[in-house]
Amino acid sequence: MHISDRLIKTSLPEPLLSGLGQSIVYDAQGKDREISNGLSMNKIFEQVEQAKQEWEATLDALPQMVCLIDEDGRLLRANRTIERWRLGSVTEIKSVPLHHVLHPICREEDCELRRFILACQDEQQPASLEIDDPYLRRFLLIKAQPVRRRGLVDGGKIAIIIQDTTQEKEAEKSLHQTNVALEQALEAKKEMIQNVSHELRTPLTIILGYTTLLADDDLGPLTAEQKEAIQVLTDQSQQLHDMIERLLLVQSLDESRVQPMACHLPALLQRFLLSWQAHARQKGVHLILDGGDEEFPLVSLDPTLLEHVLNNLLGNAIKFSPFDSTVNVRLWKTAQEVHIAVIDQGIGIAPENQKYIFERFYQVDGSQTRKAGGVGIGLALSQKIIQAHAGRLWVESLGEGKGSTFYVSLPLTIDT
Ligand code: ADP
């Protein structure tokens, strides 16, 4: 008889055989005899046992509960997390339905976990379930995966991983509560600013009315000195009045406030610049407009709101420019947008401050900014106005002392 007729293949699983990288054969009596590269069967079983123990130790070390259930939902095996969660010992829970282990006092028909396992078994598809478990008093994330062998369903077995997500959920909950509290605080702040602004507006309007009457000699003639004092009062009251108007506008502005009309931007800009020329000259600043002609397309925008933006940008450019410098206003168009740039040679803005200057009440720290006055509301309002026009407003500056350029881009058409 040929030797191959006396040899039979072992019944070891194929993956194990291929994992060991050798064919195992031994004689018909099943004796531990012959293996192609000289390993004995005992050695192989030792290795298998060691691999099994290592895997068990790895699974036991996991914080998640990992288990395998049969087609009736009964536990075939589980890692030791089940003991750490005080649900029983790994030996005791064998053959007990998983939902009994987790939810011992739950009525079968009401048990969410049982329904989930049944559905997963029916559909033979991976599934997950998040529960706020009243029995364990934990948030659980349960993931189920039908077990397949060589692509085929393995007797309805399902591998289940249960993760305790209580900490994450509680962190999420407290973050949500903080957000709600923050929103309420912001709302309260907004309301307070609005109320205070409204309260201030009325007496200020009255003060401005009287200063105008006095300045115009309507209440009797004034000396030159008195007129000068009245002028200071009028200027300061007007500044306060403008600030309050801007505060009220920034709180209430949204797209619905925009009243667009077709505007010829070159003409609009020329008018704005003319109104700033005297002030610029007084500060030794040359104000120059570049670009835009008769042919420039009409743009749909709210001219009153745009005036706020340009007044803010031009006012700042002049305010932060040195004597005998130039502020250029450029206008040009591209296929979809029109662009305005206000370019100054002033104190510049350090890169780390550039993203904050559009926030309400933000002013770059520094004596020059403080000296120049203002409360840091102008750019926040300008940003809101431009956004309400579906446009963009941003700044570029190479840093302190290197001038700043503020850009406004507006779409050529506005949907209203
Ligand atoms: P403010 O009323 O204080 O001018 P803004 O919102 O208009 O408020 O501006 C916010 C801050 O941005 C200013 O206080 C200043 O620090 C900075 N800033 C704005 N424009 C310029 C500019 N052209 N050059 C340098 N800094 C500027």
Give Rg in angstroms. Answer: 39 Å
Distance between the termini: 96 Å
Fraction of residues in β-strands: 15-25%
List bound small molecules: adenosine-5'-diphosphate
Question: Count of helical segments?
Answer: 13
What's the order of the H and E elements? HEHEHEEHHHEEEHHEHEEHEEHHHEE
Q: How many E-type strands? A: 14
Most strands sheet: 5 strands, antiparallel
Helix content: 40-55%
Q: What best-fitting shape do the alpha-carbon axes yield?
A: elongated
Class from secondary-structure proportions? alpha+beta
Mean pLDDT: 84
Poorly predicted regions are 1-28, 30-34
Kindly report the spatial arrangement of strands forming the biggest sheet: 4-3-7-6-5
Architecture overview:
The chain has 416 residues and is α+β, with helices and mostly antiparallel strands. Helices cover 45% and strands 21% of the residues. The protein has 13 helices and 14 strands. The chain has helices at residues 3-6, 14-20, 41-61, 81-84, 98-102, 112-123, 166-215, 224-252, 265-282, 303-319, 351-354, 367-372, 378-388, and strands at residues 7-9, 25-27, 65-69, 75-78, 127-133, 138-149, 152-164, 261-263, 285-290, 299-301, 325-333, 337-343, 392-396, 405-411. A five-stranded antiparallel β-sheet has the order 4-3-7-6-5, with helices on both faces. Strands 9-11-12-14-13 form a five-stranded mixed β-sheet. A two-stranded antiparallel ribbon has the order 1-2. A hairpin with a 2-residue loop joins strand 6 and strand 7 (152-164). The longest helix is centred in the middle third of the chain and has 50 residues, at 166-215. The N and C termini lie far apart (96 Å).
